[in-house]
């Protein structure tokens, strides 16, 4: 299947496109915001077909107002830990948890909303990837937010989560 050896560790970098939005309560007027992610990755081969891939990413997220000029920008440092199963040479299916640390949040006017948001975000990632022998790799992933991103008095039962689709290209240094 894959030509990796057990316990082999490779390091790399990745960058790509985010299509970020919110899911949950009162999201009918919300649409995806185009942004980006960039960071470092490591792949730890457990066997010829299974590996673990921790990542450290800067991810620009948020959402746009449907039919308007409103935009909400939230930036995170995300740490996904992906389990990768190689179903064919170079082709993997991936799943794993993610924890995110909120570093900034503002609207289109530059008004700061960081104090009204939860500083920690939990999510579940699902995706596919393809790694070439040269180290060049490609991935598509969906981050399903599991925790409420809002954290302020008077919020009541209101709950929204991050919802981010990512397409990335990366390179593993051999």
UniProtKB/TrEMBL annotation:
<feature type="domain" description="Outer membrane protein beta-barrel">
    <location>
        <begin position="6"/>
        <end position="149"/>
    </location>
</feature>
<protein>
    <submittedName>
        <fullName>Porin family protein</fullName>
    </submittedName>
</protein>
<dbReference type="InterPro" id="IPR025665">
    <property type="entry name" value="Beta-barrel_OMP_2"/>
</dbReference>
<dbReference type="InterPro" id="IPR011250">
    <property type="entry name" value="OMP/PagP_B-barrel"/>
</dbReference>
<dbReference type="Pfam" id="PF13568">
    <property type="entry name" value="OMP_b-brl_2"/>
</dbReference>
